[in-house]
Give the backbone structure.
Amino acid sequence: MSNERLVGTISRGIRCPIIREGDNLVSIVTDSILAASKDPEWGFKFHDKDIVAITESIVARAQGNYITVQDIAKDVKKKLVDGGDGTIGVILPILSRNRFAICLRGIAMGAKKIVLQLSYPSDEVGNELVSIDALDEAGVDPFTDVLSLEKYRELFGENPHPFTGVDYVAYYGDLIKEAGAEVEIIFANKATAILNYTKRVLTCDIHTRARSKRLLKDAGAEVVCGLDDIMNEPVKREDGSVSGYNEKYGLLGSNKATEDTVKLFPKDPTALVNDIAKKLHVATGKSIEVMVYGDGAFKDPQGKIWELADPVVSPAFTPGLKGTPNELKLKYLADNDFAHLSGEELKAAISESIKSKDSDLVGNMASEGTTPRQLTDLIGSLCDLTSGSGDKGTPIVFIQGYFDNYTN
């Protein structure tokens, strides 16, 4: 027993210098991991299948992938406003000062009027406008009913967000007017409800955007864009400079940087993760997996917020992180297959089952209850919780033992 390993997965937040545009992330990440391993109190040894994860924020910052609200306005005008009457529908956005409000400001600057369609009782990631119980009491069916702002206020009044204290309905309306556009606010969950107000639509949902675009086009919309279609190419400015852009995701995954600038989701960082893996292999002699991560994919039980406001958890990762876990459920084995055993006999039987398990356990009852999610979604969620979003100062996460099992 004295030689038996008693520690499983370890997740460490790793501190590094504040990242600026143009910084060499391959060197910074590698040097920070190597320096942390030699810390006299918190040091560690390297093993094959260790994982290094880097938050998307420092990747985008090093890339210098920023835009301004004026860039957004120019792109919106070109793609949605020009050729029309200046009115566009902005539908199904999330309720977020950091994620969407600054984008909405730029969108409004490019239009004459915004018809803002908010989903209810909550947005796509779970931020509530009203409770489902309040809808029941009012006799409102969120699947079919379209509410005007006046009707919404009559039925539900003001509803500040429980965590931020912001009434997002008023906040978004005021923001649009301050940007110089007229505003009309409606509440509906069907994307096509907007077509009774305008045929030019910017659909702002994240994970259902492809369906929303299809439904709108099939229903007769003249112009349909998603947030991924805005700032997906550089915008030329009056001074001759060009903006940042994200060819694949556009405004999706963006964050407020300053009052007038937005940091976009990083451009494809596949080369970055591969180069870090190579440099770590040279330095340690071990095969270490590397990924970039953004939001985790989990739900807060109190606030009902689903964390994933990025288009994906991980925009790039090394090949060893592809796929889903292939694990047996120890509780199932102990309670069923080996219910008659205990102590060392039980341990030996379970260990043998793990060693001889099939390479694909799909459909096997002994794997029932294990998490059927992509490895990068699971690991990214662990990293997001480890690094936090505040002042921990650990945008790099180093994970050991993730791929080990009871027999290692």
